[in-house]
Design brief:
Number of helices: 5
Strand content: 15-25%
CATH class: Alpha Beta
Structural class: alpha/beta
Radius of gyration: 14 Å
Distance between the termini: 22 Å
Helix content: 25-40%
Shape: globular
Number of domains: 1
């Protein structure tokens, strides 16, 4: 059984292209989530508002894009793409830990659960301060 950790991208990015794992490095929240993912996951991926599900080694250029305020069709298309990729990468019984705000979850989390994936959402509903506290404690 695999444990896949999904880490939210961040607004803060390096000024030049880099591996996705490094591109979001200026964000302390991203760094804490990455530490958790590397320590507690059998694999991890980044949820990029622009690129969908991204492998940490994938090279990306900096960008300015967010799903906050996106129309329903855009958000649903993004979620469908992410869910389809996760269906390919995981099997029933695998655990997926979503370290992201609710904007990245929604209906596709339910879809994956119906397909037999165990999806945890420990950061849903937490304030930014509580998210940082959870990540700091959990990364140990």
């Amino acid at each position: 059984m695999a444990r896949i950790v999904l880490v939210s991208c961040s607004k803060s990015k390096l000024p030049t292209a880099a591996a996705a794992a490094d591109l979001y490095g200026p964000s302390s929240t991203f760094r804490a989530a990455r530490a958790y993912a590397e320590r507690h996951g059998s694999a991890w991926y980044i949820l990029s508002a622009k690129h969908g599900l991204v492998h940490p080694a994938q090279r990306l250029a900096p960008y300015e894009y967010t799903l906050l305020g996106a129309d329903q069709d855009t958000a649903e298309s993004w979620g469908a793409d992410v869910a389809a990729r996760l269906e390919q990468l995981t099997a029933p019984g695998d655990e997926i830990v979503l370290l992201a705000a609710r904007v990245y979850g929604s209906w596709w989390v339910t879809r994956l659960r119906r397909l037999g994936r165990k999806v945890e959402t420990p950061l849903y509903g937490l304030s930014v301060g509580r998210i940082k506290g959870w990540l700091k404690g959990a990364a140990r």
